[in-house]
Every structure is written in C-alpha cells, then in structure tokens.
Amino acid sequence: MAKAQKRQKKNDTKESKSLPKYGSKEYWEQRYEKVLPDSEKDPKEVANDEEEPDAFHNWYFTYHDLRPIILPLIMGGKEAAQSLLEDKNDDSARDEKDDDEDPDNSDSPKDDDDGEENEEEGQEDGDDNNKEEAENNDGWEEASDSDDNDETTEESKLETGLAIVGEPISVLEVGCGDAPLVVGLADDLSRVNDDDNQTTLLVHRIVGTDYSSNVISALKRMHQKKRKANGEKTDKQQQRQLAMEFQEADARKLPFPDKSFHLILEKGTMDAMISDPDVGVSNCIQIVSDCARTLAIGGCFFLVSHINAQTEKGEEWLNDVVVTGLRKGGGDDASWSIEVHGNAAPVLDEEKDDNNEDSAGPAVYLIFKSSSTITKDKEKEGSDETPTIPLQFFSY
C-alpha cells in the first residue's frame, strides 16, 4: 500500500512538472498536438466533434454567432449585409435564426428583426444605448443617458462600414487557434467578391495568426485542401480572388508594419494570457499595444472576452489593460472610442450573498482608431489636454 501511494505521488509530481503553464506557448503547442494529430482532420471539424474528448473553445462565440456584428461592421450596417445574413443556402445562418426565435437563448448578440427594432427603440428612449458623456477618473468616458438631453442618441459605428470608402481593406486575426473567425469571414466575403453586381472588392487580404506552429500547420493544410476542392477559377474570379493566409506569429510582437490592417479580430487570446498571475496583465497590455500599432487610422480592433466591462472587475480590466495598451501602442496621431456589445450585468441581492460575483457573460468590444492632434508627450503626462476615451454600451 505504501509503495503504491509512493508511486502515485511520484507520477503526480512528474505530471505536474511536465505540464506547462496555461496560456503559455508550450501549453498550446501540446494541446493542439493532442487535438490535431497528424492532421488531415480540419481544425473546425475537431472543435465541433462531440466525440472528441479534447474539443474546446465552444464556450466562446463562433463566427456565425458574431457575423451579425462583423459583416455590418465591414459592409456598412445591417441593411448592406442583409443578403449575406439572410442567405437561405447557409444552414448555419438558418440555425442561428431559429436560435434567435427562442426567447431563452440570450447569450449572444443575434441578428433578427425584433432585435433590430428593440435596438432602435433603445436608441430613442435611452434604455439600451447610452451616450451622454460622464467623466470617469480612469482613462475613458462612460456614456450615460440624461433626461435633459433632447439630442438623438448616436448609433453604433457599425453603420459606418470599414470597407465602403476607399480601397479594399485588410483583416487580421490574432491568436486564431483551431476555431478561427477568419475562415467563415473569408467564405462570406468570397461570395461577395464573386457577385457580378459587386463593382469593387470589399476585402483583399485576410490573415490568421497564432503562435502555435501546430495549429498554423493544420490550418494551412485545411486551406490548401479547400482551394483544390473549389477547382479552377475564371480569369475574372482570379482577379477578384480574396488573399487568405495563415502565419505563425506572437500577438505580443506582430511581424507587420504600423497601420497595416483595417480590422483586427481577437477572440479569447487575452483571456488565456491573463490567467498567468505573474505576467498575465503585462502580456495582455502588450497584445493590445501591438494591435493598436498595427491597426490603421479609421480601423477597428474587434475584441471578444469573457471579461465584461459592464461589471466592476471588467471596468478595472478595461482601464488597466485595454486603455493602457491603446495609449502605449497607438501612436502620436491616434485617438480611440470604444463600444461594448453584450448583456448587461444582473442586479444582485447583496443581502442574500455578499460574495456573489456579478456576471454578464462575454462581451464584444469594438475599439475604433481615429486621428488625433494630441501629442504623445501630453498624453503620457496626463495633462488636461489628454483626451479621455468615449465608452458606449449596447445591451441585448
């Protein structure tokens, strides 16, 4: 009995020593190596395989959950993206619409007629969309409604559209993992590019990155296999070909020039990184900083996190990590505004449980970069001329 206990203790010690820290590159290399063996299997198929014991990430929004926000953001509002969002040939879109009709399913922002009407009502009466400036002691300005303000509440910048003015845009996803958003986005945008009625390209380049060589290798194989299956394209289709690529890259030090992408997507990478008690916060600040550096003026940093700014902890994270990172890497000519899309935090009964933690579920942050005349020196000094960052909430 004593020998068995000693042997078990030895095995446990060996296992704990060999297990890399969650959020580290070593952890994800081992994880993906296990999930994506030799790997003729598509990463997307593995992530959705119910029989696969190591399938994960399904607690985050998928691309089809997020497309009612991503597509209007690129194309300039829900009306512009309507044909894609209501594509009857897309089974996933139909499933999503069925989910929207379920009143109990309120975990993610969905695209439906009722939701759009509710959002418009919220913009009129101030219940859901709040905009008046209320000075905050941190680095941002919270938007809140006021009975004294008769002006029409501003709409989300989703209605502006990143790709409706000027040349085609480029899209980057950092920490894409085995369930990348850019794969579904590329499928949607390829249909737009192939449309004979579409006179200009919306997007010309999409890049998915991760610091795991295992998952990037698997994604490259998947992409090559998919291109072969699609067959040869006509000369016109080749001219309108959407450039899709995958690169091994660390989100803390991206190998791209300043201001080279108009839309940067990040889903869950910072949530994994911040779990490290020693360097988690500094790693996340560096991720935001380098995304801010790489984002073009007029672009959007699209961030999905379980840390919701509509909670007290989320508010602290927004200021200590996100705002700090934006100001560190944004450049002398950048100013910022933030939209938080998601569920509002529930009202808790403090008398019942003082230890109750507020939870609003995951949130989608739309972080817009625009030009600024404030110098970096003044911003660092925190002078009166340092701009606060407007913050606007959209509750669903």
Automatic annotation (TrEMBL):
SUPFAM superfamilies: S-adenosyl-L-methionine-dependent methyltransferases. Residues 97-127, 135-153 have a biased composition (Acidic residues). Keywords: Methyltransferase, Transferase. GO terms for molecular function: S-adenosylmethionine-dependent methyltransferase activity. Residues 10-26, 85-96 have a biased composition (Basic and acidic residues). Residues 199-301 form the Methyltransferase type domain. Residues 1-26, 82-161 are annotated as: Disordered. The keyword Endoplasmic reticulum does not apply. InterPro entries: Lys/N-term_MeTrsfase_sf (IPR051419), Methyltransf_11 (IPR013216), SAM-dependent_MTases_sf (IPR029063). GO terms for biological process: methylation. Belongs to the methyltransferase superfamily. This is Methyltransferase type 11 domain-containing protein. It comes from Seminavis robusta.
